[in-house]
Amino acid sequence: MALWRVYYHLVWATKERLPLIKLELEDSLYHYIIGKADSNSSIVHAIGGMEDHVHLVVSIPPRISIAGFVKNIKGSSSHYINHTLFPNYHKFAWQEGYGVFSLGSKQLDQAIAYVHNQKTHHLQQTAIPSLEIVKHQDDAPSVYQK
């Protein structure tokens, strides 16, 4: 068995940054993502976000690529929402691309607090711009702005 301690801060947005993650969807979506990550032997340290994007602090085992992990989570969660949770809901989709930031163990608590307090950071305009970057479909980086 391999020993691994790796931490990533991931962020991705809903398609066209539409406000699709409504309050009635948020808990179910987050629980699904946590369960899916757990089934892949990954550890979710924190999850949070806004109506149009999600932040995840996660440890992914070295046998799984970051891109593969994100693709699996995004694909399966949109399928879950569209076919199981809310089949008559407005069609849910994620935007292509994602942001990833590596963390050291000394940064973990700070990243967890940041993710848990997403709504407050956006309300008070204290969000960290470099942590709000996601890729558009044309692969040009953009900063999330409200």
TrEMBL record:
Transposase IS200-like domain mapped to chain residues: 3-118
Gene Ontology terms describing biological process: DNA transposition
InterPro entries recorded: Transposase_17, Transposase_17_sf
Gene3D superfamilies in UniProt: Transposase IS200-like (3.30.70.1290)
Species the sequence originates in: Chlorogloeopsis fritschii PCC 6912
Protein known as: Transposase
One annotated GO molecular function: transposase activity
Domain of life: Bacteria
